[in-house]
Amino acid sequence: MASSQPFPKIPGTTPFDGAQARKGYALNKMCFSFNSADNRAEFQKDEEAYMRKYGLNEQQAAAIRARNVLQLIAAGGNAYYLAKFAGIFGLDMQDIGAQQTGLSKDEFQAKLRAANNP
Amino acid sequence: MAKLIGCIGTSHIPAIGGAIHKGLQQDPYWKPFFDGFPPIRDWLGQVKPDVVVMFYNDHGLNFFLDKMPTFAVGAAAQYNNADEGWGIPTLPPFKGELDLSWQIINTLVEKEFDIVTCQEMLVDHACTLPLKLLWPEGDCPVTVVPICINTVQFPLPKASRVYALGRAVGEAIAAWDSSKTVAVIGSGGLSHQLDGERAGHINKAFDLQFMESLLTNPEWATQFSIHELVEKTGTQGVELLMWLAMRATLTTGKGAGVRKVHSNYHIPISNTATGLLALEKVE
After folding, report:
1. Which string of b and e fits B107-134 if b means at least 16 CB within 10 Å?
2. In this complex, do B268 and A115 lie within 8 Å of one another by their Cβ atoms?
3. pTM of the predicted model as reported, rounded to 2 decimal places
4. What is the pLDDT of residue B254?
5. Catalytic residue at B125?
């Protein structure tokens, strides 16, 4: 598949381009559905059935089961839609940042504050 | 003709909505952020805009990947907020400004911007929170024309194109046959990255230079490609495009100069370097 990404890789960064958008459509569509409280409840009642309804592939379903944000991105997930999935579990952006960087939340917060004195 | 009085750039983090709801403005974590707003509210109290044109980016409330416009202009009598899935309170509807919506739409298409027009449009925290931060008490006293710029799915519009869009919107406002007073808001940024191993990326030096450039050299950021902006400011820091469009509205016609009303910069709220800047158009 031809990549539309004409630029060098930025470390630790996956721009959500056409290739990602194609790969992640079902996953992102499911996460978009979590704008609705009824849909969030339906997902929580039977996650597997809900994932089947949206046609997630095995890579996407495994990443959802693992609640693993880096795996979700690798499966085509977009940060804005994934945030709605994380919201179901009461996770905030610093929880998500900590998970992706392999830090504790305290350590991640310290990293953010350190940006004041680069 | 309508009078364009100035612009305000601000960050828009969902958690701000929760903090307002819980009354945490004086909490030590939040105070350095909220303290930026009173001087700008004082200025708004003097210049009393009737209408706000809001450049913002939707985060998956109104638009999904099934239909993803690069530029979308609201043309609704009312804009509803709705559940975004994060548990932040839903705000009451905002009133539109239909005549200005169509003035902007007609001008943009005439100037060869092939926009999407929306007679129904849910507005998310990026559109609602700046209004709540600037007018915290009671009903929102301004009507709104929301203009959404895609920052979800690459390719994003180039910085130079966004700047040109802003200029055209400024010309549309200046040519609007109305006695109303208009302010422009740019909602987004500044540097932050939510996703990937580089999550938490913040670039204070770039942010401060960008804010300064809006005062003295507004086209400065248009030298960078989207890729360069992502590299410097993060995957979501690229929302600074909203500030660029906002600033560009003040670069045409009589009185293209600006004076700084107030600015603030604070790291971090959530994972974000927050910026706030109000500029008044100088006649």
Report:
1. bbeeeebebebbeebbbbbbbbbbbbbb
2. yes
3. 0.96
4. 64
5. yes
